[in-house]
Design goal:
Low-confidence stretches: 332-336
Number of strands: 2
Structural class: mainly alpha
Strand content: under 5%
Radius of gyration: 20 Å
Largest sheet: 2 strands, antiparallel
Mean pLDDT: 89
Number of helices: 17
Shape: globular
Order of helices and strands: HEHHHHHHHHHHHHEHHHH
Length: 336
């Protein structure tokens, strides 16, 4: 039922694009951006079923591709904004990007403390001590995305040339270093998507032309095959975690791009609803996942509870998140 639901949400409102080659950079970004809510929902479901022996188990593995999609769209959007707006990289960028994410992490941590105080079971928002609890319960994605924002700010502001190349090299070096230092797989399995998004944003016409060619299709197929080989690896290693998984993520993103050149996907009210609250959905899920796990429910009980609680909390908390976003927006920052 869940798989059918996701398929229906993707196909509902689908429209054919008559001329794929005419897809503009802005339209491509918008089409991809409209899918954020569906990818956020997939991550929620994936977190619930990732350790379960069920037909939905692949959704738990697919989460790295969904996270990579968020990295890609975020970088794509910032590269477009950098090209269109003068003085894009100033104090307002630091306030509306890294600081905004950090404040959101604090807001959702405080909500987690409140839920933990009410819940009879330990959710780890209080017991380790506030400082450690904050570090342990805040999702790794927040820290890594803040890091990417700061790297982008430094290189794009002070390097007029070869920016994307240097970010690719830095991402590769940091991913390998984090793997060797024992960081979780999640930290390094989808990182290459961020520089890929910058590449799309800066060189969209050239990238689109290449990907729509026979060589581009061949590269996509080879990336997908190489990425899927991680399923055959018995003992995980750097090649399978850092390179194969990132290759799989990139192939999924490129395939999504191919589809968007020919179709407008998920043009329906539910997908638009999910897209509007995608940030809140992603950040809200962890509280309710911990809550449901603390009671030992099976995944068939946890899934509807987590999805419903996450969506409800996303809607409730949205005005607060929106207020923070407006306060830290470039227009408001110019008044500070």
């Amino acid at each position: 039922f869940i798989l059918i639901l996701i398929a229906c949400l993707i196909l509902w409102g689908c429209k054919t694009r008559k001329q794929p080659n005419t897809l503009s950079r802005e339209n491509c970004l918008q089409n991809l951006n409209d899918l954020r809510g569906l990818f956020a929902l997939e991550i929620v479901i994936g977190h619930v079923v990732r350790y379960e022996h069920t037909i939905l188990f692949p959704l738990g593995k697919f989460m790295i591709c969904s996270v990579a999609f968020f990295y890609f769209v975020s970088a794509f959007g910032m590269a477009v904004s950098f090209g269109r707006k003068k003085h894009y990289l100033n104090l307002s960028f630091l306030l509306s990007k890294p600081l905004y994410l950090w404040i959101l992490s604090l807001v959702f941590f405080l909500i987690g403390i409140a839920v933990d105080a009410i819940c009879p079971n330990d959710l780890s928002y209080i017991t380790p001590g506030i400082r450690w609890a904050y570090l342990l319960t805040t999702n790794w994605y927040i820290w890594e995305l803040i890091g990417f924002y700061l790297i982008l700010f430094c290189l794009y502001k002070f390097m007029p040339r070869f920016r994307v190349l240097f970010i690719c090299i830095i991402t590769l070096i940091l991913s390998v270093a984090m793997y060797q230092k024992g960081f979780w797989e999640a930290y390094v399995a989808s990182t290459f998507a961020f520089p890929a998004g910058l590449l799309f944003g800066e060189y969209f016409t050239q990238v689109k032309k290449f990907l729509l060619s026979c060589k581009g299709i061949l590269v996509t197929v080879l990336l997908g095959i190489f990425g899927l080989c991680c399923l055959l690896v018995r003992t995980e290693n750097m090649l399978s975690i850092v390179f194969m998984r990132n290759a799989l993520c990139l192939s999924v993103i490129i395939i999504t791009f191919y589809i968007c050149t020919r179709f407008t996907l998920a043009d329906n009210p539910i997908a638009r609803f999910l897209c509007r609250y995608s940030t809140e959905i992603y950040l809200s899920q962890f509280i309710w996942i911990r809550f449901s796990e603390s009671y030992g429910w099976n995944y068939m009980m946890r899934m509807p509870f987590v999805i419903a609680s996450t969506l409800a909390m996303a809607v409730i908390i949205h005005p607060i998140v929106n207020m923070i976003r407006k306060i830290l927006s470039p227009k408001q920052c110019s008044l500070i």
